[in-house]
């Protein structure tokens, strides 16, 4: 990932995670397309200013989601409820409300994606787990168990490739997606279980039991910068919401909707 | 609730295996939804809640279903999936639903019906999230009802039933000897245990 | 004196296993003793180590009876290097050992550096573990073990996948850290460089019973018949020394070496047979990311030829072999199988011609049962069931896997897994067999059995290409050896010419006969005839 040396990468992972989740929950409370779009644009601005994103990166990582945007929008526009019909064709009934809601949800989804990307593109895995242990009192057993398991991800991917190779070499030729899906599922699980067992054995054999006092090689702390980031982010979010309110665009999810 | 290290890593590993499976399933989802539309494609939903009933069935501990779904989502966060953070929220809702089934039976009954209930309740959980976040509330009642019904049925079958089938075939391979599922079976069959003592 | 580490009358049965794996084993070890466990592959050595170190029944549950005593802190190095890591980077992995011992943070970096130095692992601390080669992983495992500073160290074949020089280095390193009060229990098949500093050797037979124990020399002498019957490797030199053998021209070892040198020389002089090529490699370049692992490699493989690929850990041997099987795509250059570019072969057709055995045997397994595993290829190809069953049974018997017919491949011992993965490739008649370290972790009997099988295939015209760290096999079996180093093939020719050349061969150690010959040559050089 390109962003591990950026300013955002130095923000404490647990703090960053919480802040982004809060913003996402806030997005869920907003029910109009303009505010949702503003908050989505905010995440891109942050990505450019603090996360080291450039145009190419945005085109590569975010633009593909426009297709997703259209899908979400279409679903709500075409299947959503509403009275004011704009266009009708066969069983599709496009209404003003449908379009309004569709845009809201589509921008919200985009926001979810970019705030997620903002987090994952600037966060180191080990640091995140360590910060969960130190800032959120996640038990080391789960923290290190998660890390040990994460080692399997590339393994599983290469394993799937290897497994396909092994099958190929053994003369097995999968016909059709569903069939190969069925063929590789069980071995994938069996291997996963075996691996898990052995890693657990290895960890305990090295004196790890999750209960004894231990020291840490990585000790993430919360510093002034982390608070700064939270304040900055929340101020911007609330500022944009207020702006939207002053223009009369803002709608909350619980006030019901009207176009 | 004392988890063994082995069980912790197993949960994570199986969540990851499920994650890989989900990815494969997603590639199937697109053509299907193109064919029958997004509502019809809800039929395929169940596979996405497989982790909870499967892991709870093997480990048989309070909290296993919830933790399984959350760690499956955590795995997505760690792999840098863009849906990572939202899957954390979805995972929590689904996991809570799945967990309810086992809770209702006081963590005593691990049968096919419990698993299917768990899959169905996971679908309810995910529906709750969809209503709050994905604007499902804006759908016409007909679409909403159909989605809901398909999701629950799919959750029960592709989540619950499939979990049972997978777990049984895994049990046959002898890979689960070390876990609660097989221990309970051995106990039922009256297998004797050896023990060690210090000298 | 009360034993420091002991088991008394211990029996072990794994859940679901038909019979006991260990039967009434009694062993006791004094503080500071260095003990070596010897036994044929699959006899229960790893199981015994797990019992002694408390992994069974602490972490792995099984039916265990008997008594065990052990000191508080133990460290274990497992047989499979891939299985023992739980972090993502090299530095974090070693730090994990230190964290568990609650070493203060400010001491960690220095200790990590020290452990890496000790284990001869010279890579940046933030190197991802998954990118290390098999041998480098074993070094990392060793570094982690050293960082634990435990009272007792259990080492289960710590050098199985190391290059010969690396193996000697590790033995030397272990010997040097083996302070007098450190207790060590080893399992190893390769004995040279290790057995000479052991205090005691314990022998197990194929069914996990204790045959005998004692000081290395005594055991080798007293139980030589049993050792041979059980098929256990004997050291190549010990209890003799090079000086002793060199000095005495009627020494049996010297005679054997002379013979074998003569044979190798003769084989090197017989011209290469005019047979058609089965495989041609042209200007092949392979890279991971931006770094080229292999650059501009060219060579040919003829029908019925036996080729050994040798080289240091991480040299790119496995990479080359995978490329030959079409599993790794070259960046540039071409590979032709029977004059047709490998890219153009449809997978099903290609693997009728080419068999491949992975370095990690587990990658090979696709079924749940040992029997099915061997039969799989035949079933896919719709062999007649009765022919198939006969062939399968014969293979299982030859590879001493018959008793485990119904076991899950993953529950086999490491050596058994290796044999099974090779057996799966021998069911039908490929023209080219590619084997990545097919004999590691084998005892003498199984190793010979396996090689005999390959020899038979060679006689039928199959070309055999094997990666190996065992230079004796190279010398005795290979028609040609490819030495991979610095991203190219540094040598391509008869083993005799490689081993008898004066060139330095980093990572490798010549077979003893050549070492002896070099020594004689140098002596003659130093004392030319007539000046003495
Ligand atoms: N978890 C397990 N479940 C069932 N059987 C097992 C298990 N682990 C080992 N075994 C069986 O126990 C026997 C002894 O295995 P072990 O790994 O101890 O052999 P070993 O002497 O170390 O052999 P090698 O030299 O090949 O490593 C084998 O036959 C193996 O199939
Ligand atoms: N998937 C990979 N990604 C990146 N680098 C890799 C990968 N696989 C291997 N390498 C690197 O390529 C080099 C050659 O690896 P390879 O496995 O071919 O070595 P080898 O000669 O087989 O070593 P060994 O004797 O230890 O098995 C090593 O430096 C290794 O770190
Ligand atoms: Mg072993
Ligand atoms: Mg290799």
TrEMBL record, chain A:
It is found in: Membrane. The keyword Transmembrane applies. It holds the Pfam family CbiQ. One of its GO terms (cellular component) is plasma membrane. Its main location: membrane. Keywords: Cell membrane, Membrane, Transmembrane, Transmembrane helix. The chain crosses the membrane at residues 12-31, 37-55, 62-79, 99-120, 227-252. It is a multi-pass membrane protein. PANTHER family: SLL0384 PROTEIN (PTHR34857:SF2). This is Cobalt transporter. It comes from Aneurinibacillus migulanus (Bacillus migulanus). The lineage of its organism: Bacteria, Bacillati, Bacillota, Bacilli, Bacillales.
UniProtKB/TrEMBL annotation, chain B:
The keyword Transmembrane helix applies. Keywords: ATP-binding, Membrane, Nucleotide-binding, Transmembrane, Transmembrane helix. Pfam families: ABC_cobalt. One of its GO terms (molecular function) is ATP binding. Coiled coil: none annotated. This is ABC transporter ATP-binding protein. It comes from Aneurinibacillus migulanus (Bacillus migulanus). InterPro entries: ABC_thiamin-permease_prd. The chain crosses the membrane at residues 7-25, 31-51, 112-132, 138-163. The keyword Nuclease does not apply.
From TrEMBL, chain C:
GO terms for molecular function: ATP binding; ATP hydrolysis activity; ATPase-coupled transmembrane transporter activity. SUPFAM superfamilies: P-loop containing nucleoside triphosphate hydrolases. GO terms for cellular component: ATP-binding cassette (ABC) transporter complex. It comes from the Bacteria. Its main location: membrane. Residues 5-232, 279-511 form the ABC transporter domain. It is a peripheral membrane protein. InterPro entries: AAA+_ATPase, ABC_transporter-like_ATP-bd, ABC_transporter-like_CS, ABC_transpr_CbiO/EcfA_su, ECF_ABC_transporter_ATP-bd, P-loop_NTPase. It is found in: Cell membrane. Transmembrane segments: none annotated. Keywords: ATP-binding, Cell membrane, Membrane, Nucleotide-binding, Translocase, Transport. Belongs to the ABC transporter superfamily. This is ABC transporter. It comes from Aneurinibacillus migulanus (Bacillus migulanus).
């Amino acid at each position: 990932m390109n962003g591990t040396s950026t300013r955002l990468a130095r923000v404490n992972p647990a703090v960053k995670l919480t802040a982004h989740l809060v913003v996402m929950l806030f997005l869920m409370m907003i029910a109009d397309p303009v505010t949702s779009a503003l908050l989505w644009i905010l995440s891109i601005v942050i990505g450019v200013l603090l996360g080291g994103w450039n145009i190419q990166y945005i085109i590569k990582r975010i633009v593909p989601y426009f297709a997703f945007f259209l899908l979400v929008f279409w679903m709500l526009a075409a299947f959503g409820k509403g009275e004011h019909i704009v266009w009708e064709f066969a069983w599709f009934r496009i209404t003003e409300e449908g379009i309004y809601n569709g845009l809201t949800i589509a921008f919200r989804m985009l926001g979810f994606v970019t705030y997620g990307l903002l987090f994952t593109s600037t966060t180191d895995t080990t640091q995140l787990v360590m910060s969960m242990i130190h800032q959120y009192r996640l038990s080391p057993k789960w923290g290190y168990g998660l890390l040990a398991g994460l080692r399997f991800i590339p393994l599983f991917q290469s394993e799937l490739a290897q497994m396909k190779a092994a099958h190929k070499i053994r003369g097995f030729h999968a016909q059709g997606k569903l069939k190969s899906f069925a063929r590789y599922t069980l071995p994938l699980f069996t291997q996963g279980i075996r691996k898990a067992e052995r890693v657990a054995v290895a960890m305990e054999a090295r004196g790890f039991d999750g209960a004894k006092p231990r020291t840490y090689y990585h000790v993430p702390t919360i510093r002034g910068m982390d608070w700064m980031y939270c304040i900055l982010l929340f101020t911007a979010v609330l500022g944009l919401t207020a702006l939207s309110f002053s223009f009369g665009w803002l709608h909350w999810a619980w006030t019901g909707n009207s176009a | 609730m004392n988890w063994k290290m082995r069980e912790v890593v197993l949960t994570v590993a199986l969540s990851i295996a499920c994650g890989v499976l989900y990815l494969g399933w997603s590639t199937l989802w697109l053509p299907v939804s193109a064919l029958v539309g997004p509502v019809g494609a809800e039929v395929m939903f169940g596979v996405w809640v497989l982790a909870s009933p499967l892991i709870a069935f093997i480990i048989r501990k309070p909290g296993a279903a919830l933790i399984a779904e959350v760690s499956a989502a955590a795995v997505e966060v760690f792999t840098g999936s863009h849906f990572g953070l939202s899957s954390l929220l979805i995972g929590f809702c689904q996991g809570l639903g799945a967990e309810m089934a086992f809770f209702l039976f006081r963590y005593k009954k691990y049968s096919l019906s419990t698993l299917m209930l768990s899959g169905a309740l996971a679908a309810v959980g995910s529906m709750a999230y969809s209503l709050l976040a994905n604007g499902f509330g804006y759908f016409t009642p007909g679409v909403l009802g159909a989605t809901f019904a398909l999701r629950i049925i799919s959750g029960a079958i592709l989540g619950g039933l499939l979990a049972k089938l997978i777990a049984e075939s895994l049990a046959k391979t002898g890979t689960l000897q070390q876990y609660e599922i097989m221990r309970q079976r051995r106990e039922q069959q009256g297998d004797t245990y050896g023990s060690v003592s210090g000298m | 004196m009360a034993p420091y580490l002991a088991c008394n009358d211990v029996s072990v049965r794994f859940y679901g296993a038909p019979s006991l794996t260990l039967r009434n084993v009694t062993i006791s070890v004094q503080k500071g003793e260095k003990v070596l466990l010897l036994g044929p592959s699959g006899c229960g050595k790893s199981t015994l180590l797990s019992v002694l170190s408390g992994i069974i029944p602490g972490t792995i549950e099984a039916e265990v009876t008997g008594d065990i005593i052990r000191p508080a802190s133990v460290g274990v190095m497992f047989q499979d290097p891939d299985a023992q890591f739980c972090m993502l980077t090299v530095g974090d992995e070693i730090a994990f050992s230190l964290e568990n011992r609650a070493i203060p943070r400010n001491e960690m970096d220095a200790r990590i550096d020290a452990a890496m130095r000790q284990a001869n692992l010279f890579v940046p601390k933030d190197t991802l573990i998954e990118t290390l080669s098999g041998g480098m992983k074993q070094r990392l495992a060793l570094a982690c073990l050293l960082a634990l500073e435990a009272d007792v160290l259990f080492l289960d074949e710590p050098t199985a996948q190391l290059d010969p020089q690396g193996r000697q280095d590790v033995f030397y390193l272990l010997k040097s850290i083996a302070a007098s009060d450190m207790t060590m229990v080893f399992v190893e098949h390769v004995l040279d460089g290790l057995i000479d500093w052991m205090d005691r050797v314990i022998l197990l037979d194929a069914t996990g019973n204790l045959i005998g124990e004692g000081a290395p020399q005594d055991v080798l002498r007293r139980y030589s018949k049993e050792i041979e019957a059980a098929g256990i490797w004997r050291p190549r030199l010990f209890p003799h020394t090079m000086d002793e053998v060199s000095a005495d021209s009627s020494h049996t070892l010297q005679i054997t070496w002379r013979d074998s040198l003569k044979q190798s020389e003769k084989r090197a002089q017989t011209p290469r047979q005019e047979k058609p090529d089965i495989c041609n490699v042209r200007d092949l370049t392979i890279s991971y990311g931006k770094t080229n692992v292999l650059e501009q490699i060219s060579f040919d493989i003829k029908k019925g030829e036996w080729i050994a690929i040798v080289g240091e850990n991480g040299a790119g041997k496995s990479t080359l072999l995978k490329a030959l099987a079409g599993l790794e795509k070259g960046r540039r250059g071409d590979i032709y199988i029977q004059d047709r570019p490998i890219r153009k072969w449809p997978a099903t057709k290609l693997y009728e011609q080419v068999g491949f055995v992975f370095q990690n045997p587990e990658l090979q397994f696709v079924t749940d049962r040992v029997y099915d595993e061997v039969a799989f290829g035949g079933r896919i190809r719709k062999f007649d069931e009765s022919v198939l069953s006969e062939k399968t049974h014969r293979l299982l018997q030859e590879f001493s896997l018959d008793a485990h017919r119904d076991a899950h491949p993953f529950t086999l011992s490491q050596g058994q897994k290796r044999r099974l993965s090779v057996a799966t490739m021998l069911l039908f008649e490929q023209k080219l067999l590619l084997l990545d370290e097919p004999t590691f972790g084998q005892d003498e009997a199984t190793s010979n059995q396996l090689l005999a099988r390959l020899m038979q295939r060679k006689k039928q015209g199959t070309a055999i290409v094997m990666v190996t760290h065992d230079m004796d096999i190279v010398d005795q079996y290979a028609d040609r050896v490819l030495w991979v180093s610095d991203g190219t093939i540094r040598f391509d020719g008869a083993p005799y010419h490689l081993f008898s050349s004066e060139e330095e061969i980093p990572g490798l150690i010549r077979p003893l006969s050549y070492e002896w010959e070099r020594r004689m040559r140098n002596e003659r050089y130093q004392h030319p005839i007539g000046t003495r």
